[in-house]
Amino acid sequence: MAVYVLDNYYLAITLLITVGYQLFFFAIAFSLKFDKLTDFAGGTNFVVLAIITLAFSGHHNARQIVASLFIMVWGLRLSGFLLFRILKTGKDDRFDDKRDKFFPFLGFWVFQMIWVWTVSLPVTVLNSPNVTQYLQPAFGTGRDIGGVVLYAIGLIMESVSDIQRYRFKSKQSDKSAICDKGFFNWTRHPNYFGEIIIQFGIYMICVSPAANGYVQGQAYKALYATILGPFFLTTLLLFVSGLTLQERPGAKKRFEKNNHWEEYSRYLNRTSILIPFPPQIYERMPTILKRTIFLEFPIYVFDPSKHSDGGKGQRGEEEGHSSRNPSHDNRQSGDRLV
């Protein structure tokens, strides 16, 4: 029997749990100036919400179990990898200007609350009483299969690319070396592409009861409305905390510090920004297709004559400085999602 808590879609209870969970870890992080639990708190929050809503639903059909397990596996893998990485690096430089400031630091955690709650919406609503009160189609519809395929591809891409980049950086004495191996030979951000299709895959599974005509009324609309989750994640990665903070700023830093700029410029030209594509074809592709179909929008593109602080003159000065000072900071920009 389903448990009814605050509302019939579990929206309020999942929001309250998320706020409480994140504030608990925020209190630890701010009080102890401890960065190591930040991403762990985000990933594991997905697991907590999936377990609670599945337990409350009182109905455990195959689709609910699969969708809940999928988001739990993704959340555990993501939080586990990020915890492992931060334990190796020691601190998270995203918070260097926020760690001692209560409200700016809290702002990050509030944004993480919104991220977790919104991206969890498909599974939350699928497990809710307003949906489970209807007869459910047997698991294995076309959308179910499509969702499983998307999820599998996405999880492989995200997991393998994280490992590939970590191993590449670990083996390089030059920390500004360009990782163009494995999936990074086909896309500059395979982990982002994988994460996006993971969430659309989960959504496809969750929306099946409505798409196949079993769920009606407001529950029908609610299931379709949960596409907000994957769209929010995609918007976040494309325009807020992903590509916009990595592409142009990263290229600008390389140009001005001469961190393998010529090599990196060739890498940008031949490698798709997000959607995996053969580099031999992408390199010869018309710019208009790169800027539209392949999502390499002008906001990501670095033009040295327009975006460099000192133009080519400063680059020349940096080249001379770099050759005289081997200890010059050559860290690659944008190694992690903010």
Task: Report on the architecture of this protein.
This protein has helices spanning 11-32, 38-57, 62-89, 102-119, 121-126, 129-132, 142-171, 190-206, 208-211, 217-225, 228-240, 243-257, 261-270, 279-282, 287-291, 304-307, 311-324. The protein is 66% helix and 0% strand. The chain is mostly helical. The relative contact order is 0.10. The chain is globular.
Structural class by secondary-structure content: mainly alpha
Mean pLDDT: 88
How many strands appear in the DSSP assignment?
A: 0
| Radius of gyration from the alpha-carbon trace, in angstroms | 22 Å
**Span of the ends, CA to CA:** 41 Å
Number of helical segments with 4 or more residues:
17
Please state the overall shape, judged from the principal axes of the Cα atoms. globular
